[in-house]
Amino acid sequence: MTEHEQEDVPQFRERARAWLAANMEPQAPNRLARPRGAGHQTADDITAARALQRKVYEAGFFGIAWPKEYGGQGLTPAHQRAFQEEASHYEMPNLGVAGGTTFGVCANTMLRHASPEFLRRHLPRMLAGDELWVQFFSEPGAGSDLAGITTRATRDGDRWILNGAKVWSSGAYYADYGMCLARTNWDVPKHRGLTWFAVPTRAPGVTVRPIKEINGDIEFCEEFLDDVELSEDDVIGDVNDGWTVAQTMLVFERGGGGDFVPQGPRRATRLPPELVALARRVGRDQDPVVRQQIARVHIMNTVQIQLALRVASHMRAGTGPATGIAAYGKLAAGTFDPIRARLAMEIGRGAALVWEPDDLEGQRASLNYLNSRIMSIAGGTNEMQRNAIGERVLGLPREPSFDIDKPFSEVVRDAANWTGKV
Amino acid sequence: MRVDLELSDDQELLRATTERFIESAMPLSKVRELADAGDAPGADYARSGGDLGWFAMLVPEEHGGGSASGAGVLDAAILAEARGRVLQPGPFVAHNVVAYALAVSGSDAHRAAVLPALVAGEQTATWAVADATGDWNPDAGLRISRKDDGFVLSGAKSLVEDADRVDWVLVSAVDEEGAVQFLVARDTDGVDAHRLEGFDFTRRQCEVRFDDVHVPVAARVGDAVNTSATIDRQFWYAAALLTAESVGAMDALFGITVDYAKARTAFGRPIGSFQAVKHLLADTSLLLEESKAVAVAAARALQDDSPDAAEIVSIAKAFVGDSGIELAHNCWQVFGGIAYTWEHDLHLYLRRLTANASLYGEPAWHREHICTLQGL
């Protein structure tokens, strides 16, 4: 890679363009995106995507802005953006939701908290497509109150033994590792006894079970950890400092992060094509009510893009608390998505209720409708975003809490005997 | 949080000097005093505004104008936002629109005799385009006929800001040959401008009657070829500046509401600690941040003369119009009963934001306009 050390962005772009043209398949024109819910990634899909990923990585076009010592190219975010722009016309490796989690959330978090040894061991493999990571984060009994997790990691000599259950881990059925939050100390307040671990999904004692969702899709999984044995090398960050790591992770999960730049056009250039098509199909594109509805969705799309750009400049300028600022983008999606989806159902009328099996257009509105509360629940509910904005950005006082200052073992006991009296 | 995050030093200075002037010359207490008395600011208000650059931003330097940063529309939007925070009365939006119209399509005489005085704030102007129903098409309310070597105007325009106080009225209309505009002195025979009572009394809204007013050809602004497009642009500028003004008003109102939620206690703690209140304020904060983002986008699109500027202005006008009203209502709810009093400032903001949503096209009009622009 030394010959590219001084390479400026235009030169890099030129080289990327040439390589893409010679090595990658162009994107099929006007490809109708498959609606979510039609199935899930097959083992063959993932194997093919991993191979493609390795090809891009070995050519030096993945991990462009990542440190060289961890397998990246050590170039700038501008190089990264240049490549993304050039690559937007090609079929790039699609590692599905676990790919997004691996690179967008886990790796970025590890870069800030994991030891150099850990990073040298795992990051090059992640970039090469050999390690896909998901989050072992929420539990059946802890979602919004993430610090209330009860998966237990117990030290035994130089080993750690994990027991518990995790849920909502997207794509875990084909992932290689779970980045797992566990309680390592029960005798301190809840935020101070947490630690992160690297859990191989195929380790003895790990059971990954896919969950079928309301849209018919299988993306989420639940995991059971029964006496899973790990070593000291599998700890990410400092023992009992897991909450600090979790804060970083939440910023990335909400689409924040210092180098975050929204991709795609700076505004919605066209009226939402799927709504226009739906309106025409049911003969309502001249109906003033429907036109108002289509324009409303178009406005939301544009506003959401502009808001994302604004959030990104806040992040770059460091003008506010990152977890609070990132919450705006998340809450915008969580509030707009359900409205958009309902409007589509209204516009489509019968066409959104019944369809022939091969009719994707008819299905899309109803599938979007079923998916429309993903952003309002997953990765921090709207209510959690509102708390983050209210408390961290606006500076409003917190609600009184009953679990901050006492050992977590007492919190669990007292919650079970809750009377409402303080 | 700040409205535009990327202000240059020149723009910071522009904003700071205007804020200082408003604080001393026209604070909210003074706005209220004028409104209660049905009065308007003295001529020195416009002159000081002229000194601060309020009317120069949309006018090229060769006609006496000039921006602070080289980006006049953005500068004007910064001023509009700063003025909106304190619900400033006119002249501003309509006056700027007239200055812009004269700069791009006025006669040499208009540019030489009138425009410099408008830029300096020594004379004032307003734009008569809508009728009393709130129809902003230039043909609203007025009939134009040709007579001898001039035109005859008859009918009435309404929703004309400051019309009973200004020196000049730019009248937009449509005759049999297309869109026309005239610059008419307010004291012309047959022109009767009188103040209307109104919902938003923080500024003066007037009706202007034209009783067979004879207007010479020399009063015409623009020609048959370009006038329709110029009126469109005037409308976009007005809508974008009014949107920036609304965002300023929203930011100020939201700020005092959050302060109140921290200071007011009930059930033994600040009301802002209750999630019912906190979440309402968080949602409102989101509306505000979205409004800021899209208002800046609209000003940028006009600044850059983007091909889709008309559409992004409509998007911003519709979204901020609706959001301004929702924000005012949410803040009202947080204040509770105190905001139902005349003495509290909330109703001044509620009135301004609600009126701004309707002026220069209500949200539903802009939504339909977006569909039309997109060929649906």
Which helices and strands, and how do they pair?
The complex is a heterodimer of chains A (422) and B (376).
Chain A: H1 9-23, H2 43-58, H3 77-87, H4 96-113, H5 116-127, E1 133-136, E2 152-156, E3 159-167, E4 177-183, E5 194-200, E6 206-212, E7 218-231, E8 235-236, H6 242-253, H7 273-281, H8 288-317, H9 322-348, H10 360-371, H11 374-377, H12 382-393, H13 408-416
Parallel strand pairs in A: 1-4
Antiparallel strand pairs in A: 2-3, 3-7, 4-5, 5-8, 6-7
Chain B: H1 9-25, H2 28-37, H3 43-51, H4 72-85, H5 93-105, H6 108-120, E1 125-128, E2 142-147, E3 150-161, E4 168-175, E5 178-185, E6 191-195, E7 205-216, H7 227-263, E8 265-266, E9 269-270, H8 275-303, H9 309-335, H10 346-358, H11 363-373
Parallel strand pairs in B: 1-4
Antiparallel strand pairs in B: 2-3, 3-7, 4-5, 6-7, 8-9
CATH superfamily of the largest domain in chain A: Butyryl-CoA Dehydrogenase, subunit A, domain 3
By oligomeric state, this entry counts as heterodimer
- For the largest sheet of chain A, list the strands in their spatial order: 1-4-5-8
Beta-strand percentage range of chain A: 5-15%
Give the number of helices of chain A.
Answer: 13
- Count of the domains of chain B: 3
Question: Using DSSP, what is the number of strands of chain B?
Answer: 9
Outline type of chain A: globular
The CATH topology of the largest domain in chain A comes to: Butyryl-CoA Dehydrogenase, subunit A, domain 3
Count of runs of 4 or more consecutive helical residues of chain B: 11
Q: Overall 3D geometry of chain B?
A: globular
Global Rg of chain B: 21 Å
The total number of structural domains of chain A is 3
- State the major sheet of chain B: 4 strands, antiparallel
How would you state the average pLDDT of chain A, rounded?
Answer: 89
Order of H and E elements of chain A? HHHHHEEEEEEEEHHHHHHHH
- What fraction of residues of chain B sit in β-strands? 15-25%
Strand order of the largest sheet of chain B: 2-3-7-6
